[in-house]
Design goal:
This protein has one domain. Helices cover about 60% and strands about 5% of the residues. The chain is built from 6 helices and 2 strands, in the order αββααααα. A two-stranded antiparallel ribbon has the order 1-2. The radius of gyration is 16 Å and the shape is globular.
């Protein structure tokens, strides 16, 4: 029987990660083309961003999500989409920070419950506290 050891499996991870970044990019372009990101004090729709800049932002979002114990691809996608729809630093809001602090790992159901528990006022506060450094990218376009 053919066996792949952990080291060999890790060698494929960068390719798998980039394939996922491409899928998230396609999802955003198809499903949220008008979502806006603020960079260098300017607003850009997802479709107006250069594709490589968009992918860089997605990579930063995935990194941020994984730091919160998110590993399911569907939950990673939902986290990144919220970054574009609300703010790249939405996870710093008081309720969000508490949620991520209290949950070592976050799956789809927990994440959906968290989003449902956020009120309109909470999301307004998230948008007001928008911080583009949450993208974890260089400022140049």
């Amino acid at each position: 029987m053919f066996k792949i050891n952990a080291e060999q499996l890790r060698a494929f991870q960068p390719d798998a990660d980039e394939a996922f970044v491409r899928r998230v990019t396609e999802y955003l372009l198809e499903n949220h083309p008008d979502a806006e990101a603020r960079l260098a004090r300017n607003r850009f729709s997802v479709t107006a961003l250069p594709v490589e800049k968009l992918r860089e932002m997605i990579r930063g979002g995935l990194e941020r999500a994984r730091e919160h114990g998110i590993h399911w691809k569907s939950t990673l996608l939902a986290f990144v989409v919220l970054m574009f729809l609300a703010a790249p630093n939405f996870d710093e809001h008081l309720k969000a920070a508490r949620f991520f602090r209290e949950n070592e790992t976050v799956d789809d159901e927990r994440f959906e419950n968290f989003v449902a528990e956020m009120s309109d006022d909470d999301w307004t506060a998230v948008e007001a506290a928008y911080d583009e450094t949450g993208w974890r990218i260089g400022a140049e376009l």
